[in-house]
Amino acid sequence: MKKKAAYTLAVVGATGAVGTEMLSILRERKFPVDRVVPLASSKSAGSGTSFGDDNLTVKLLTKESFADIDIALFSAGSEVSKEYAPVAAKAGAVVIDNSSAWRMDKEVPLVVPEVNPQDIAKHRGIIANPNCSTIQMVVALQPLHAKARITRIVVSTYQSVSGTGKNAMDELAEQCRALLSFGEVKTEVYPNQIAFNCLPHIDEFLPSGYTKEEMKMVNETRKIMGDESIRVSPTTVRVPVFVCHAESVNIEMEDKLTAEEARSILSKAPGIQVHDDPGQGMYPLQLDVVGTDAVYVGRIREDDTIANGLNLWIVADNLRKGAALNAIQIAEELIKE
Amino acid sequence: MKKKAAYTLAVVGATGAVGTEMLSILRERKFPVDRVVPLASSKSAGSGTSFGDDNLTVKLLTKESFADIDIALFSAGSEVSKEYAPVAAKAGAVVIDNSSAWRMDKEVPLVVPEVNPQDIAKHRGIIANPNCSTIQMVVALQPLHAKARITRIVVSTYQSVSGTGKNAMDELAEQCRALLSFGEVKTEVYPNQIAFNCLPHIDEFLPSGYTKEEMKMVNETRKIMGDESIRVSPTTVRVPVFVCHAESVNIEMEDKLTAEEARSILSKAPGIQVHDDPGQGMYPLQLDVVGTDAVYVGRIREDDTIANGLNLWIVADNLRKGAALNAIQIAEELIKE
């Protein structure tokens, strides 16, 4: 990207859970912004949002929205990305897309800056931001993979409702309120009650019995880590938590790493906080991680049921590192080029 | 046990979450009861409880409580079991103990009636009831083990607060109420807020980094399934759900079983309900399983990251099959002898 003192940005889906985070993180990290254009569908266009002290009016997303835009951050779902990302790229913007639309496209780099920043340079106008549950896992696993080569991952997730969106957060709160006051529980966003219940169902089911969310963890992990031989066996579960995803991850490696070695490697790695002193009550908790930037790793244990195994508990803010922050970090790398 | 038309039973810890379930399940299943004596510590002795239409007064647990008792159901914690189970056995009762005190004792059978009913006959006055998270897992895995020999299990749990007790259920409700009305959140039962949060911490931590709960899943599984070679790699997690534990279980087998074969084997096995048609929205949910007796299995998927692998989602009512019901089923087997 051509070096500038400041850049013009579009945020597509500016009023959503992730779009809102994007605007606030751009400001927080002092991204060199000349102008921000918040865009949305007709449902939200005309409403207000803010960027720092500036009040902005959300504009209607059209095919003409991207003139003079340097970077277009998309977080408005796959259909919108499929239609408008090529338009934005053609208009000269670099798209950083948070949907799943382009992630597995061979021409589109899929990037987690701590893991594969070198892939950014290969873009042809679109860079994909990975799925939230994948991002936090690869940040935590890449340093171990570099040292001992991970061959297999068995992962079970504990994913918060904010991954679905603001409406899901409202639904969880409303259902709890209703249950605690003997009111009527309504289910609209999820097919089943999420309050005080875990749903082993994220995204659509495929004929194999796995969900699309699970297959994202399989395929995106390989693409980001640049190693098609890594085998991933996932089970993704929605839990009644507002923000932050947690993951119970079992890995098998080619070489042995003790828990202590893993802790030492991870403490020196970028974007990771090791919170692992369970005797002192220290392990990552979703509540503690809300609003923070790092991927937190704890409960690091040797798994002696295999030759070179480890168990880990990985927590990150799915709206930040799992989505908006990772996208802004990609933009930061992009303007460094 | 000597055949009788009806038996005298003591329920130690009669006012607790599990004790209350025991009384109701004895009645529900028409256990041949001559007399039930509810026992508790001085904190609860004198309070009232009921057995069907009968109102009973809870008596103080003493060393003299077990005269003329045929079967003593214990669910009052390890310390009480260590002290009083031998006293009850010496007085001629057969103890069925829900605590962890005697489970790994070589002289004490550890029994899940669907899996190892034959071990009951080996008792010397005490029979141990396994840990809740172990019971539901072995019920679901034993039929697959019998067919294809399971060599390794990787399990992550989603355990409800009722496993901790009534006070934990109150704490979850209170914390939710406080959070939804901007009140003050109090944490007393758990070291951290459980409302809208997952705690990767059940029971005490050991120097290895595993918890006692996790090691119960390792050791009890082997003892119940009668196979010391089964390797279990567990991560146990408390989730903000009132009743029922869920488990994400990955198994490696000596022989291949397709998902369809596993479904067919499990549908014919005792104590299991296969709820596995995700395309139709059918998978086991904690909310649906509350108050039921079976172990529910769904999301059965082949795991092609290993030669002979399967993933499963296993749900059961931890107060019933995970505790009270399993104990009563042991008593039912005992009087059949």
Label this structure with key terms.
homodimer; 337 residues; Rossmann fold; Dihydrodipicolinate Reductase, domain 2; six-stranded parallel β-sheet; six-stranded mixed β-sheet; 23% strand
Detailed description of the structure:
Two copies of one chain form a homodimer. The first copy, chain A, is an alpha/beta fold and 337 residues long. Chain A has two domains: 7-129 and 323-336, NAD(P)-binding Rossmann-like Domain (Rossmann fold); 134-318, Dihydrodipicolinate Reductase, domain 2 (2-Layer Sandwich), CATH 3.30.360.10. Chain A is 30% helix and 23% strand. The first copy, chain A, is built from eight helices and 14 strands. Chain A has helices spanning 17-28, 78-90, 132-148, 166-180, 212-225, 259-267, 286-289, 320-336, and strands spanning 7-12, 33-40, 48-51, 54-57, 59-60, 71-74, 94-97, 126-128, 150-158, 231-235, 245-253, 272-274, 295-303, 309-316. Chain A has a six-stranded parallel sheet, with helices on both faces. The first copy, chain A, has a six-stranded mixed sheet with strand order 10-9-11-14-13-12. In chain A, strands 3-4 form a two-stranded antiparallel sheet. In chain A, strand 13 (295-303) and strand 14 form a beta hairpin. The radius of gyration of chain A is 20 Å and the shape is globular. At the A-B interface, strand 9, helix 4, strand 10, strand 11 and strand 13 of A face strand 9, helix 4, strand 10, strand 11 and strand 13 of B.
